[in-house]
Amino acid sequence: MNDGDVSRQIQQMVRFIRQEAEEKANEISVSAEEEFNIEKLQLVEAEKKKIRQEYEKKEKQVEVRKKIEYSMQLNASRIKVLQAQDDVVNEMKESAAKELLNVSRDHHVYKTLLKDVIVQSLVRLKEPAILLRCRKDDVPLVESVLDSAKEEYASKVNVHPPEIFIDNVNLPPAPSHHNAHGPFWYA
């Protein structure tokens, strides 16, 4: 073989090696690009997942805050309603306390009230014999309504009229002002 053939053969081998090297370099480049894209996609998905989780966490926090705020507003409105009810009840108690001072002045109304209270007590107690305690001033009035109270009770409950005895110990006299009607005014 002469130098020209050797040179051509060497050139051909160099081209073949270069072509192989370029193909291998392209394969490596394509493989690296694929690995890069896969890694990038995994990182992007991981970050998206992290952002979604963070968003869901913040959304839950907002929901909890809304529920707490709603509950606080609901409680505040309940407190206002209860306060208004309490004010009305206190006004009614005050008014009733003032009216109680005048109850015994109207003889007919007071007599009816005493009879109704006695009947209610009998219905509540459901006893065959009762010891009744009243104010000293009210003894004659109570004695005058006892028979009708016994009969009314007996007809309501379908029993024999009970025996009612008036106690010798009397309740204290009526208060002179409405503040005396506290829980222990009679003690």
TrEMBL record:
Highest taxon above the source species: Eukaryota
UniProt-recorded Gene Ontology molecular function terms: proton-transporting ATPase activity, rotational mechanism
A Pfam family the protein falls into: vATP-synt_E
GO cellular component: proton-transporting two-sector ATPase complex, catalytic domain
Keyword set, alphabetical order: Ion transport, Transport
Transmembrane as UniProt keyword: no
Matches recorded under InterPro entries: ATPase_E_C, ATPase_V1_Esu
Sequence similarity: Belongs to the V-ATPase E subunit family.
Protein name: V-type proton ATPase subunit E
Species the sequence originates in: Gossypium raimondii (Peruvian cotton)
